[in-house]
Amino acid sequence: MTEATSLMRLRRVARPPAPSALSNALVFGWRAVLKFKHVPEQLFDLVMTPIMFTLLFTFVFGGALAGSPSEYLQFFLPGILVQTVVFNSVYSGMGLSTDFGKGLFDRFRSLPIWSLAPFAGLMVGDILRHLIAATIIPTIGLILGYRPEAGVLGVVAAFAMLTAIGFGMGWVFIVLGLLIRTPTTVMTAGFTFLFPLVFASNIMVDPSTMPGWLQAIVEINPVSLMTTALRGLMGGGASAADVLLALIAPVALTAVLAPMTLWLYLRR
Amino acid sequence: MVLATGRTVGSALKTAIGASLPVRRSSNAAMNEMLPSPQPAAASSAPEGLAISARGLAKSFGTVRAVDGIDLDVPRGMIFAILGPNGAGKTTLMRMLATLSQPDEGSATIMGHDLVAAPHAVRGAIAMTGQFASLDEDLTGRENLVLLSRLWGFRGREAKKRSDELLAAFGLSGAAGKQVKDYSGGMRRRLDIAASLIVTPGVLFLDEPTTGLDPNARKDVWNMIRGLAASGVTILLTTQYLEEADQLAARIAVIDHGRKIAEGTSRDLKAATGSGFLHVALADPDRRDEAAHLLETLLGQSVSRSAEGAELHVMAGTAQAANEALAALIAAGIELADFSMGQPSLEQVFFALTDRPRPSAELQEKKGTRT
Predict the structure, then answer these.
(1) Which domains are assigned to chain B?
(2) What ipTM score was computed for the predicted complex, to two decimals?
């Protein structure tokens, strides 16, 4: 009976003035930040994976691939940034799948809010992850002797490019998160798609030693185009064409998958 | 097991007799009554008008018509239950009313807003607590409420104030700073309902609010629902527990295979099935066939049995006929552990309506876990 009586004393509250779409999106962004606080394991993953990849490739394979570890680092570092950003998008998709499984999105959908606000929140989480990775990797690189020849401006441009890549790739996992009910399946499905894309590219090695048919694939692989542009931006000598080619995939993915996301979301 | 079931039937009978339903209308309304008929009790606590009015709602998934043309009228301030077995279409119906799923056919207004034309306005007037706790498990209880308060448009301090009020009202102040993944099932359910009350909703949808809860937590949730209704919130709940509908709801709609097969107060439904039910519990379950045969011959009515077979239920019609039947059983040397006369239990009504002669295994199982 205590619940009943205390509930009857609960103040009746009327609806406050409707918040803006931006306000809704920022609340979901705040949620993404809280996730970092409450799920530190995720942060560990986020920090350790790129560090391990950088060290492994530089010191274990670097000498064999490029003559010396330091020379290889100069080649490899922009590539590992692209790889990390592409892989990092998996967290959003898994989070989305978890939220749907738990019925959390049903609550969001029954609220009078901007329909796309929850996705804006996911994007905030994504961008934070990309920024963390994009800070750690060049820092390790600098310690190991990497020098961005294009200077600070080049690095800033590279950050902007990475954010655009992350934004575009993010939709892939968001769509998978909407379609697949179990978070681990989202991860497996995503990586099945991303692994060949990342390894059959120019991230790790110069494709000139690959068989001709593979070279043809690597050349048009969007991940190669992104890596080439990023190398140019950080190392100097990027052409406008490089940058535009690198942006084709993110722009196309957004154009196709953003409306698809909305459709899938509203249909459920 | 026999004893345990005996208790269940005993308590069902008590409610059937009507002792716990003092505020409900006692008129002998016909079954399948489709017209809205506001209760005196509900009318006193709510303004006039309907909270929900739906006509011909239908929704198909592939070739399955999950909801097959349902009309519903729920007066403001009432607790209204939608009762039905698993797969009857309860959740689909509720999801449509809560704007989560678009109806294929039909129309509805919720608190005066058109469901299809103005879903955003409907969302502003409702709240829904789904079957599974729709909370962010990684966040604390308080953070969950603050998040939702901000989405409703409360600013920093107001959002925190409202969250703390709700935590206190639901007895969760102590657990406010704990992550929801560490909450018990009952605590989650309380927080989930609290999350639906940030802005006092016109209509609160509760989809199977006590499924999976232990008996104590279930009683808590029932008290909560009564408290909310007393504060003027219209509540539409789905349940597969007959006892829950009987205990809480002023009106019950029974649905099966996507169609409404009956509607009325718990009394209406029982009265329509007929009063003058004789319930007997046998001391020796092995003699049930003999006893059932005797009763059938004497009363000319079919006898239904509990799943374990130790109890028999039969329409006796009059007290005198019941007396004679009992005398005949005793004369035949069939010892009775218990007997009573009264209205059918809601369970019997349900099975009569859904044309299932015996409780399905599933409902029996649910009942078994409760006793």
Answers:
(1) 2-8+274-370 (3.30.70.100), 51-139+194-264 (3.40.50.300)
(2) 0.83
